[in-house]
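User: Can you predict the 3D structure for this chain?
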Amino acid sequence: MEEYILNIGIVIQARMGSSRLPGKVLKKIGNKNLLEHILYRLTKLTHVTKTVIATSTLKRDDIIVSFCKKNQINFFRGSEEDVLERYYLCAKLNNFNHIVRLTGDNPFIDIPSLNNLIKQHMKTNADYSRSFNSLPKGVGAEIFTFNALEKSYLNGKKRNHKEHVNEYIEENEDKFRVFDLSIKSKKSYKNISLTLDTEDDYKKACFIVKNAKKEYIPTEEAIELCLQYA
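Assistant: Here is the predicted structure, written as structure tokens:
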């Protein structure tokens, strides 16, 4: 009940206009498209959250809205280029107190670390918390308070602030309470990427899904299969 009152929102930014891999968010990886993989993994979260797919108002993103309507998924439409504004208006409309930011090109979000990140974010009373600094690219996440998002929106005037939701905070960490989730591991993941930016990334994701033991793929298994693909 406490978490419901806190109103935690998971906002997944997604658009069809990727320059290197157009339409990737709805490309099939096995029997699910990329967004479906993310949404399926989020069903394993232990925290009470509301998920919204935040896309643009451009006509080419109508297909994402159709996907959301067909599958009864919450969606929001805003500026394509000003992603910070898109997040702010989405969070404000939904009365989110805390916002988990995910992107539509990461099908292997690590759920155990996301559960822990949300827990520690609340426990430490942080403004901004992140887990991606100690995880492979495309596996971590971040969460910020609505107040931190609003401060970013009102003060982030540079182009990179508007394109990347977290960069005003990262450039002004002295103004925020920042928490970094440390992931204990004997392995180094610096050269491992599980995000989808290119056609080869897409082929790698298909390889991982095809060779996984079960429908839900633990991050450790995704990493091992990633190494086999390489």
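Strands lie at 8-13, 28-29, 32-33, 49-56, 74-78, 98-103, 128-130, 142-145, 178-180. The domain at 2-229 is CATH 3.90.550.10 (Spore Coat Polysaccharide Biosynthesis Protein SpsA; Chain A).
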